Amino acid sequence: MFLSRTQEFVAFGAVGLALFVLELVRRRKLSEELSLLWLVSSIAIALLGFSTELLRAATRALGILYESSTVFAAGLGFAVIGLLYLSIRLSRLSQEHLLLAREIALLRLEREIGPAASVPSRGGQA
Predict the structure, then answer these.
(1) Is the residue at 47 inside a domain?
(2) Does this model's pTM top 0.70?
(3) C-alpha dihedral over 104, 108, 110, 112, to 10 degrees?
(4) Most buried of 31, 47, 86, 101 (most Cβ within 10 A)?
(5) Contact at 8 Å (CB) between 49 and 5?
(6) Looking at the domain assignment, is residue 75 inside a domain?
């Protein structure tokens, strides 16, 4: 089995990335949830890098001219999936942040004015 220099670089780079991700998880700098996406993508890229036949088969199946373009497309695909996932999480966190800010504002108002002032009157009753 002959690996080109590019394949070696990509494969060992992907293995290095996977080891780095595991180290980040061990140090609690990266959540296990997010590490799964990184590990799956780096393992897939490493498989394409180490297996010339798999890389050629994927290249033919996708109709791409060059094997290096297949690896690049796979990496780009995982990057897009990762960005979409992080955008979803960021949107959810923004909504939770807004809700918490409103709750804190109500609690401060209740503490400063009193509990009766924070409860809105219903139907114009005083």
Answers:
(1) yes
(2) no
(3) 180
(4) 47
(5) no
(6) yes
